[in-house]
Amino acid sequence: xxxxxxxxxxxxxxxxxxxxxxxxxxxxxxxxxxxxxxxxxxxxxxxxxxxxxxxxxxxxxxxxxxxxxxxxxxxxxxxxxxxxxxxxxxxxxxxxxxxxxxxxxxxxxxxxxxxxxxxxxxxxxxxxxxxxxxxxxxxxxxxxxxxxxxxxxxxxxxxxxxxxxxxxxxxxxxxxxxxxxxxxxxxxxxxxxxxxxxxxxxxxxxxxxxxxxxxxxx
Length: 218
Hints:
Layout: H1 2-20, E1 31-35, H2 44-49, E2 54-61, E3 65-66, H3 70-79, E4 84-89, H4 96-106, E5 117-120, H5 130-134, H6 136-151, E6 156-159, H7 161-167, E7 176-180, E8 195-204, E9 207-216
Parallel strand pairs: 1-2, 2-4, 4-5, 5-6, 6-7, 7-8
Antiparallel strand pairs: 1-9, 2-3, 8-9
């Protein structure tokens, strides 16, 4: 029984440390957060006060999807004077033109915004269409070009480990990379990253939910 209690106490301590962990500021001076509707009502002033230098906002996905909190989050980020960018979750099952139309409808032109990010998580084989899978790179390039034409700057490719393992996009499309791995630097893209989601468990005063904490390569 004593051993069990000790193990439970150790697990609690480790969990608390997991929630408190952040990458070293000495190693990564510029840090921020990724925020979307899953995070609820985030206090952006508190987020800035606790050390966020920037924030990325989930904005759109696919041809019709919109983050329910995006208008509120965008206004709050501007009010808190937090540098901000947007994220579109790419759906390989949907045409580039339809997704671009969704993006440009939701995301305003703003020269002060950070480079937009395209989240690549959904695998082409989930579409159950070999033609779609074969044309993934071409369609994605079309979407990138249309987004960059709208915002006037290059996009960042936010690539999950599963997507990169399946499609190897990082070495075929030359854009800055945003990779993800909790607590350890990611190395699955075959070239250096620019942004890294270093933890998905960051707790603070800005939200009741754990936030995804992001650092910039110095």
